[in-house]
TrEMBL record:
UniProt GO MF annotations: mannose-6-phosphate isomerase activity; zinc ion binding
Annotated organism of origin: Flavobacterium geliluteum
Lineage top rank: taxon: Bacteria
Names of required cofactors: Zn(2+)
Record's protein name: Phosphohexomutase
Domain Phosphomannose isomerase type I catalytic: start-end pairs: 10-116
Lineage: Bacteria, Pseudomonadati, Bacteroidota, Flavobacteriia, Flavobacteriales
KW Transmembrane helix (keyword) present: no
Length: 322
């Protein structure tokens, strides 16, 4: 690669959704023009939606291009060894003006067999919540395929699902198989495996502008669902100027950094690191490079950059692969 690697930002990939709104613009400064923008894909190599670099000498190149040119330097030695030249994570912000559909994601085995894809383990960090906003996550009590189908047919599925009030700062970790829906009035940062496989179970009988309902995937979902009650909410510490562990799973590690002054960061070169600015603003400095980031920004630190400094006053998510 002719250009030296540096912290990379990307053009947001904006997605209209029937349940979307305008908070991605008003809260997170995204350049939306639609009244129903539901998602901003911050960092993606999903086919047809590959992120394009927005800053510096590599501006205009795609994330896949620089991975293909310098996989160890961009992804990290361990990530490249494990995943090859695939970027294994997808980063998003979502604005739920209305409830999302009730859905489930398959595990790696099912997704590979059916779709030649990764499964979709994911986590949500709630960045903004209206009063009384809630999420649907898992079953209230252990259930079964038969009980689930009966309630689905009777249009009473919501009655057996767990509804949890959500506020800013809450974290929910959803393993594959967990039935879930983001509720109206929430903006969330989502970190997930690189997958766009979703089985929609129930969509509140909504119709689009043309009067059509959205496709459901009831049969596909039956073998993907975990029918047992699950604990999804994660507690975490908030030690200033430090990386506080939030989620550690085989697919990603997420830390919460309440930055009040500065943090010296030393990495191993084994994984890339991604920072999502949830509140405030901060700078990254290394080797003569200095760049400022604000609320709503996402930045990829290539694995070859192993020492740098974060400074400012911000709430930041730090994500890498252990």
């Amino acid at each position: 690669m002719s250009a030296k690697l540096y912290p990379l930002q990307f053009e947001p990939i904006l997605k209209e959704r029937i349940w979307g709104g305008q908070k991605l613009k008003t809260i997170l400064n995204k350049p939306i023009t639609s009244q129903i923008t539901g998602e901003s894909w911050e960092l993606s190599t999903v086919e047809g939606d590959v992120s394009i670099i927005a800053n510096g000498d590599l501006k205009g190149k795609s994330l896949m291009e620089i991975i293909n040119e310098s996989p160890n330097e961009v992804l990290g030695t361990n990530v490249y060894k494990r995943f090859g030249k695939q970027f294994p994570l997808l980063f998003k912000y979502l604005d739920a003006r209305e409830d999302l559909s009730i859905q489930v994601h398959p595990n790696d085995k099912l997704a590979k067999e059916r779709h030649n894809s990764f499964g979709k383990t994911e986590m949500w960090f709630v960045t903004q919540a209206d009063e009384d906003a809630r999420i649907i996550v898992g079953f209230k009590e252990n259930s079964s395929k038969e009980d689930y189908l009966k309630h689905l047919q009777d249009n009473t599925l919501v009655a057996i699902l767990d509804q949890v009030k959500a506020k800013a700062g809450d974290v929910f970790f959803l393993e594959t198989g967990t039935v879930h829906a983001i509720g109206a009035g929430l903006v969330v940062a989502e970190i997930q495996q690189t997958s766009d496989i979703t089985y929609r179970l129930y969509d509140f009988d909504r119709k689009d502008a043309q009067g059509n309902t959205r496709e459901l995937h009831v049969d596909l979902a039956l073998d993907a669902i975990n029918y047992n009650k699950v604990e999804t909410q994660k507690k975490y510490a908030s030690t200033a100027d430090a990386s506080n562990l939030v989620v550690d799973c085989p697919y990603f590690t997420t830390n919460f950094i309440p930055l009040e002054n500065k943090q010296d960061v030393h990495k191993s070169g084994e994984s890339f690191t991604v920072y999502m600015c949830i509140e405030g603003s901060f700078d990254i400095e290394f080797d003569g490079f200095k760049q400022s980031y604000k609320k709503g920004d996402t930045v990829l630190i290539p694995a070859a950059i192993i020492r740098f400094v974060l400074s400012g006053k911000a709430s930041i998510l730090e994500i890498y692969i252990s």
